[in-house]
Amino acid sequence: MDMKNIAHRGGAQLVPENTLAAFADALRRGCDGAELDVQLTRDGVPVVHHDFRLMADVARRDGIWLEAPGPRIKDLTLEALCDFDVGRPRPGSDYAARHPALRAVDGQNPPTLEAVAALAASAPRPFLLFVELKCDASDDSADPDALADAAYEAVSGLMERVIFVGFDWRALARIRRLGGRCWFTTDRLQGDVRPVLEAIAQLGGQGWFPHFSDATPDAVAQARALGLKVGAWTVNHPADMRRLMALDALCTDRPDLLDALL
Predict the structure, then answer these.
(1) 165 has which bridge partners?
(2) 3-state SS of the chain?
(3) Average pLDDT of the residues in 90-104
């Protein structure tokens, strides 16, 4: 079976999400790759963090957790961002309750995309990076073209191991013009998915990356008829994993459970 086990944010239910510790853990577990979220700092460095603002109950400075969403990533220099530790959720927080099996790793700053690419390049076997370009039309977001350009440059030496994904198709269209590989992400869809799949194909996408509930047999068959690979996010329960085993990739917070099934 050639289905890829992709650790979502590095395996967010197991190790602090979007940290070098998480991506190294995914490598040690034998995952086929990891998904990660990329944004731009004020000084134009692509860094890995999910929310547009530093996450409450996750980010802490001088040992004190943020109790509300912190400053925007786009407003912080890389040096300022590195003042924050994201390796341990605040005990008793909702985040900690939602991640009961998480093993804290202190001393984890939001890493640069370049550092994650270097880790992947050092792997003894191919390790895929699903690089999600975190941008949208809000004021909290970086410019999609600027983000795409910077992310592409950061992984330019590892392009055979990189798949760009994201909900903002403007950024993915830019990546396609640069020559990068893209699987176009969709949120939960209603009705006929064919127009969406045809749009992905027309934009030059190599794959479709839907919410797992949309990866029905009919939709997957339509995507493959258009020459698209199909992955799904975020698949955390064994019953769903079993149902979707025929896909090209599953993105999961629990790569350990998926590995046991494989």
Answers:
(1) 132
(2) CCCEEEEECCCCCCCCCCCHHHHHHHHHHCCCEEEEEEEECCCCCEEECCCCECCCCCCEECCEECCCCCCEHHHCCHHHHCCCECCCCCCCCHHHHHCCCCCCCCCCCCCEHHHHHHHHHCCCCCCEEEEEECCCCCCCCCCHHHHHHHHHHHCHHHHHHEEEECCCHHHHHHHHHHCCCEEEEECCCCCCCHHHHHHHHHCCCCEEEEEHHHCCHHHHHHHHHCCCEEEEECCCCHHHHHHCCCCCEEEECCHHHHHHHC
(3) 98
pLDDT, tens digit (0-9, with 9 covering 90-100), for 120-179: 999 999 999 999 999 999 999 999 999 999 999 999 999 999 999 999 999 999 999 999
Please answer whether residues 114 and 150 qualify as being in contact, where contact means their C-beta atoms are separated by less than 8 angstroms.
no
Taking the C-alpha atoms of residue 55 and residue 75, their distance in angstroms, rounded to an integer, is 14
* Mean pLDDT for the chain overall: 97
**Structure confidence at residue 1 as a pLDDT band (50, 70, 90):** low
Whether residue 129 contacts residue 43, with contact meaning beta carbons closer than 8 Å, is answered with no
Gyration radius (Cα) of the chain, Å: 18
Is residue 175 within 8 Å of residue 182, measured between CB atoms? yes
CA–CA separation, 48 vs 73, rounded Å?
10
Checking if the pLDDT of 231 tops 80, the result is yes
Q: How far apart are CA 244 and CA 9, in angstroms?
A: 20
Angle value at C-alpha 127, between 124 and 132, nearest 5 degrees: 155
Burial of 28-54, coded b for 16+ CB within 10 Å and e otherwise, reads: ebebbbbbbbbbbbbeebbbbbbbbbb
